[in-house]
Amino acid sequence: MAISTGQQAAVIAAGKGAFSVRPMDLDPFRSGSPYGKHAILEIKELNAFASIEVVTDLPIERLGRVSLERNNKEIIGVDADFFHKRDTKKGLPVEAKGVKGATKTRLIIPFADETLRTLAGIRRGELVHQAGEHLMLKVGVNAKEAGDPDIPEFSGKARVVDYQNERYFQQRYTQTSINHTQTGEQRHEFPLVGANVRLRSMLLECENDDITRVSIRRDKELIWEQDVEDIKFALGRYGEMNAPAKGVWIDFVSCGFANEQSFIPVAKESLKLVIDKRTTGTIDVFNDFIEVERLPE
């Protein structure tokens, strides 16, 4: 017989242990010039990571795609500057070389949020690294430009909690794109689907920054719709966050999906993301979500 949600929460809480975060330094990045390639860090510490921090003496514009692989499977794949945009949205401090006198760029990849719990009290998040797994962080580095150091510095830090024998949830960040081929309203296949997905937020960006309205249709029924102007106002008024200077950031918790603190992108027949845009063009989509790997039975 399946156990109740409350029993699941108790089992998960017992397995995760106390949320007592402590800082630690990670091993050095691989040596050599990463220009036009990647700065690579192999993570060997058997901990549950609340966050990983990359510190470099390059400006954020020189960094490309951030990829985190577990046993050669990518669990994070997104542009480096996404994490600065995410922190800015949340009102968190951002450090970028060359901005306000900063001599370093700090890139924080967050996994755990102490406040991120379901109504049943289940704590989610943390990058749980288990024995026998190979974890590798790759930071894309663009071509060297005038004024850049010959060999840029990269170092890694982390905030960790104790080792966990079981992994139930995985924080993920992914990036894809939508081709908007007509002016005005167009229905697109939802860019991320799955019963095990808990979509916390979605950032939509395009060159002309001219998206005017966004809605979601599940099985031909309209379940959510809002003008971009209203989305931006609601983000600050009800989510206590900052709207991006460019693009549309849909925070599902403050948009009516607070029960699970996320939107679950599933449907019996079809799930559509409907976008109203003044011009045609490519729309970049950045997903911030938790993947449910398993639950206690």
Overall body shape? globular
Main-sheet strand order equals: 2-8-4-5-10-17-12-15
Number of strands: 17
Q: Could you say which structural class the secondary elements and strand pairing correspond to?
A: mainly beta
The SSE order reads HEEEEEHEEEEEEEEEHEEE
Question: DSSP helix count?
Answer: 3
Distance between the termini: 8 Å
Strand residue content: 35-45%
Rounded to an integer in angstroms, the radius of gyration calculated over CA atoms is 20 Å
Q: Looking at the chains present, what oligomeric state does this protein adopt?
A: single chain
Averaged pLDDT: 89
Q: Report on the biggest sheet.
A: 8 strands, mixed
Verbal overview:
- The protein is mainly β.
- 10% of the residues lie in helices and 41% in strands.
- The strands form 3 sheets. It has an 8-stranded mixed β-sheet.
- The mean pLDDT is 89.
How do the strands and helices of this protein lay out in sequence?
Blueprint: H1 5-16, E1 22-25, E2 38-43, E3 48-56, E4 63-70, E5 73-79, H2 81-89, E6 105-110, E7 127-128, E8 135-141, E9 154-161, E10 169-180, E11 184-189, E12 197-206, E13 211-218, E14 221-227, H3 228-237, E15 248-251, E16 271-277, E17 281-292
What can be said about this structure in brief?
The chain has 297 residues and is mainly β. It contains three helices and 17 strands.
